[in-house]
């Protein structure tokens, strides 16, 4: 995938990606239903200490709900809380909307 290549080039140039870069990349993976790539990148983020934030989790939950993976979305929601990430009304609304479809 081209996005992975750009990320590698970015790192090779000595520019460390920040949470915004990862959020954009993961959002693209999630929207394209490339959940394997999504979870691999989440692992990398955690490994380098750039933990996901509530915005990213909400994007992932939205994608999971869109692809009718509600149980996985709920597991991710539980993970958010377990990791001490603050959730907001948007996160709750996203999950509720997923269950109402």
UniProtKB/TrEMBL annotation:
Keywords for the protein's UniProt record, in alphabetical order: Repeat
One Pfam family in the UniProt entry: PPR_2
Entry annotated with the keyword Glycoprotein: no
Residues in PPR repeats: 18-52, 53-87
Classification via InterPro entries: PPR-containing_protein (IPR050667), PPR_rpt (IPR002885), TPR-like_helical_dom_sf (IPR011990)
Family that this chain belongs to: Belongs to the PPR family. P subfamily.
Name of the molecule in the record: Pentatricopeptide repeat-containing protein
Species for this entry: Arachis hypogaea
Taxon lineage: Eukaryota, Viridiplantae, Streptophyta, Embryophyta, Tracheophyta
């Amino acid at each position: 995938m081209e996005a992975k290549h750009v990320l590698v080039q970015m790192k090779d140039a000595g520019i460390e990606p920040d949470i915004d870069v990862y959020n954009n990349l993961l959002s693209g993976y999630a929207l394209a239903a490339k959940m394997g790539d999504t979870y691999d990148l989440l692992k990398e983020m955690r490994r380098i200490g750039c933990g996901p934030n509530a915005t990213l989790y909400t994007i992932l939950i939205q994608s999971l709900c869109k692809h009718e993976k509600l149980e996985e979305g709920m597991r991710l929601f539980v993970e958010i809380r377990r990791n001490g990430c603050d959730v907001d009304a948007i996160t709750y609304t996203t999950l509720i909307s997923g269950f109402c479809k």
